[in-house]
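User: What would this chain look like folded?
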Amino acid sequence: METLYRWSDMRRILTGLTSRSMKGIVIYESLTGNTRKAGEKIAAELSRSGIPTIACSIRQIDLQQLSEAELVIVGSWVDGLFLFGQKPAGVRRLIELPAIDGKTAAVYCTYAIESGKTLDKLSAIVERRGGNMIGGMAIKRGELDAGASDFVDRLVGVLEAQSA
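Assistant: Here's the prediction, encoded as structure tokens.
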């Protein structure tokens, strides 16, 4: 499991967001179900933490929820060769995500052996769609529950610190 990056930027971007009710959405690209499972776990844990969040496939985005969400999390599985050439899967669909201008965004990817630069590439796609990237996390396929929980714990920890 890789660590999150750029979480320090989150405090700057999220200024003021924790003083009101925040909604979230997790949008995932999944092939075998691992990225879907991680996304559903992230959404459920965020909801339990007081941030109502739904998870949906990139093929069936809830556009109403996306328009209401202030927090957008995008997930993908790692596509490519074992040790090089890794990238987010479904790049065409990711590039065609609806605009998320000005929304706080984070990314995650699920992987089996190595995630390579997948998080950087996924972050760049989300930034091009208008998201204010705050970080991301690679979650090993055999550690979905623990990885999703760690991702949410870090995110909520920063949100709580921001509201203090």
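The beta strands are 24-28, 53-57, 71-79, 87-88, 104-111, 132-140. If you want, I can go into more detail on any region.
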